[in-house]
């Protein structure tokens, strides 16, 4: 029944934008897709699809387009595929999170399991080398996938000279022009700067610099309590830094479910991470050996000074759309630089598309990948589908926090009658067996229909556990549906089953 329901849904992506596609003359155009059958190749140098940007959205779109029989070229300015995520984001940060967690466990937990060492020390160069090796292997892997799927890879900075032509300045200074019937902008995002703060990637760093520090700072100040700031704060905190997080808002990770957020903040505080909420940075002094920050309450008030060896600026990201020649060809953007697209990812300029961080929606690598697949499916005359309300999010600290769907606060604001079911990992046998039982599963479901509206997990492996919930929400499952599925014992996933039981009836083990 759920399968039939899913199949009946509209097979298109809904992108938030001011007004609808049908309300603007700029979007009233049609496409001839008769030439885009599998195996089609132009007799000229023109591509069917050209993609500017080789990050998660761009490279996945390129591979999928080629698999659909479209002649495809991908342009990447970095000289290495994978974008921010693979080179200076998701992947290297997860490598350091894992390595630093192993060090932390060796000091604080191994003895409890009967494993003892005379001493444990950090070899930071070796840790960084392992991170770099992981990145290098994966970037080379994507190049191999390009060759396998016959995607043309052009290294250089691309910008529009017409709606069907991209000028590419190569890494060696050479210039070429790449032509395409359909051009996709997949240039991702960049670090958002803060007024009066200059990032030098030495003492004042972005996430890029925080991934490449050559020594462990004694004091680290993180500006911004979002996903990236808390992850990088965790890395250096585990390795010995005194970490203070300064956040303008009243809460850490404001998009997180409120109850889960409270558990999460307490967990981080137990790990000696300090928080200064409702606080803003009004001045930075780097004249001495370290950094002196002048801070004050967000609402105004007495100023104080905060000292650090390194300051991490982690106040969000901004779409990378400047310098692409979008204005030259008349592509519409909003006030923050996002490209406005319709439900098929098409801008107001026919033949020019955009995906990932440069359009509205969550700035997540996996969202960009789904955008890329759906976009080229539309180009090939097929149906694409992405639902931004069902995209999971994960904070890769320890414990991890993962969620999908709506928070309890959002459901309440919508006026939906709901039920909540919860189950703590303290009552989960696998978590107790491995002595890692901090966390909870929370399910929010419709009171009348029992349909799952949101799932929120704090657990050692929440980022893996959440995908059962993602599947359930995508297929309109009820909490009883999950509760009646046999889960292997002993596993952490049984906590999700018990939370589902608690939502529609009663749990067994608490």
UniProtKB/TrEMBL annotation:
Domain FAD/NAD(P)-binding: start-end pairs: 48-372
SUPFAM superfamilies named among the record's database cross-references: FAD/NAD(P)-binding domain (SSF51905), FAD/NAD-linked reductases, dimerisation (C-terminal) domain (SSF55424)
Principal EC category: oxidoreductase
Disulfide bonding pattern of the chain: 85-90
PROSITE patterns for this protein: PYRIDINE_REDOX_1 (PS00076)
BP-aspect Gene Ontology terms: 2-oxoglutarate metabolic process
Catalytic machinery residues: 489 (proton acceptor)
Cofactor field: FAD
Binding site for FAD: 94, 158, 187-189, 357, 363-366
Pfam family, one: Pyr_redox_dim
An MF annotation (GO) of this entry: dihydrolipoyl dehydrogenase (NADH) activity
InterPro entries, per database record: Class-I_Pyr_Nuc-Dis_Oxidored, FAD/NAD-bd_sf, FAD/NAD-binding_dom, FAD/NAD-linked_Rdtase_dimer_sf, Lipoamide_DH, Pyr_nuc-diS_OxRdtase, Pyr_nucl-diS_OxRdtase_dimer, Pyr_OxRdtase_I_AS
Pyridine nucleotide-disulphide oxidoreductase dimerisation domain ranges (all copies): 391-500
Binding site for NAD(+): 224-231, 247, 316
Keywords: Disulfide bond, FAD, Flavoprotein, NAD, Nucleotide-binding, Oxidoreductase, Redox-active center
Assigned EC number: 1.8.1.4
Keyword Transcription: no
Catalytic activity: N(6)-[(R)-dihydrolipoyl]-L-lysyl-[protein] + NAD(+) = N(6)-[(R)-lipoyl]-L-lysyl-[protein] + NADH + H(+)
NCBIfam families assigned: lipoamide_DH
PANTHER family: DIHYDROLIPOYL DEHYDROGENASE 1, MITOCHONDRIAL, DISULFIDE OXIDOREDUCTASE
Quaternary context: Homodimer. Part of both the glycine cleavage system composed of four proteins: P, T, L and H and of the pyruvate dehydrogenase complex containing multiple copies of three enzymatic components: pyruvate dehydrogenase (E1), dihydrolipoamide acetyltransferase (E2) and lipoamide dehydrogenase (E3).
Function: Lipoamide dehydrogenase is a component of the glycine decarboxylase (GDC) or glycine cleavage system as well as of the alpha-ketoacid dehydrogenase complexes. LPD1 is probably the protein most often associated with the glycine decarboxylase complex while LPD2 is probably incorporated into alpha-ketoacid dehydrogenase complexes.
More info: The active site is a redox-active disulfide bond.
Protein name per Swiss-Prot or TrEMBL: Dihydrolipoyl dehydrogenase
Source species: Acer yangbiense
């Amino acid at each position: 029944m759920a399968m039939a329901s899913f199949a009946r849904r509209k097979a298109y992506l809904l992108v938030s934008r001011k007004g609808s596609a049908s309300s603007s003359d700029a979007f009233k155009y049609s496409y001839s897709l008769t030439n885009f059958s599998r195996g089609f190749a132009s007799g000229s140098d023109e591509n069917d699809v050209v993609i500017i940007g080789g990050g998660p959205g761009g490279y996945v779109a390129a591979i999928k387009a080629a698999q659909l029989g479209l002649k495809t070229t991908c342009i990447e300015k970095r000289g290495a595929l994978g974008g921010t995520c693979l080179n200076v984001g998701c992947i290297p940060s997860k490598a350091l999170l894992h390595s630093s967690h192993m060090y932390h466990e060796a000091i604080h937990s191994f003895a409890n399991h009967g494993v003892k060492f005379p001493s444990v020390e950090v070899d930071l160069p070796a840790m960084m080398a392992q991170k770099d090796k992981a990145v290098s292997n994966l970037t080379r892997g994507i190049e191999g996938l390009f060759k396998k799927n016959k995607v043309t890879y052009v290294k250089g900075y691309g910008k529009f000279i017409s709606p069907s032509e991209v000028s590419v300045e190569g890494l060696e200074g050479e210039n070429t022009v790449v032509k395409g019937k359909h051009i996709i902008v997949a240039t991702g995002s960049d670090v958002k700067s803060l007024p009066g703060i200059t990032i030098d990637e030495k003492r004042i760093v972005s996430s890029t610099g925080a991934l490449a520090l050559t020594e462990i700072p004694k004091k680290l100040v993180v500006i911004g309590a979002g996903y990236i700031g808390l992850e990088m704060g965790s890395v250096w905190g585990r390795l010995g830094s005194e970490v203070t997080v300064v956040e303008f808002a009243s809460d850490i990770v404001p998009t997180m479910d409120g109850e889960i957020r409270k558990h999460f903040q307490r967990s981080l505080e137990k790990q000696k991470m300090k928080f200064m909420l409702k606080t803003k940075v009004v001045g930075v002094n780097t004249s001495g050996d370290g950094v002196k920050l002048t801070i004050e309450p967000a609402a105004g008030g007495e100023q104080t000074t905060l000292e650090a060896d390194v300051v991490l600026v982690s106040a969000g990201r901004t779409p990378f759309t400047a310098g692409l020649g979008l204005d030259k060809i008349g592509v519409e953007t909003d006030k923050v630089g996002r490209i406005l697209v319709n439900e098929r990812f098409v801008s107001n300029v026919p033949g020019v598309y955009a995906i990932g961080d440069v359009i509205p929606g969550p700035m997540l690598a996996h969202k960009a990948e789904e955008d890329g697949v759906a976009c080229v499916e539309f180009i090939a005359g097929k149906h694409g589908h992405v639902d931004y309300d069902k995209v999971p999010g994960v904070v890769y600290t320890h414990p991890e926090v993962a969620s999908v769907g709506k928070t309890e606060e959002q459901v309440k604001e919508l006026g939906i009658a709901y039920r909540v079911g919860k189950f703590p990992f303290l009552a989960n046998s696998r978590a107790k067996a491995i002595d890692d039982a901090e966390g909870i599963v929370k399910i929010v479901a419709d009171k009348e229909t029992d349909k799952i509206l949101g799932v929120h997990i704090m657990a050692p492996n929440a980022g893996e556990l959440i995908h059962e919930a993602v599947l359930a929400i995508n297929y309109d499952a009820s909490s009883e549906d999950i509760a009646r599925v046999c889960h292997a014992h002993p596993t952490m996933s049984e906590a999700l089953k018990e939370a589902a039981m608690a939502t529609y009836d009663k749990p067994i083990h608490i």
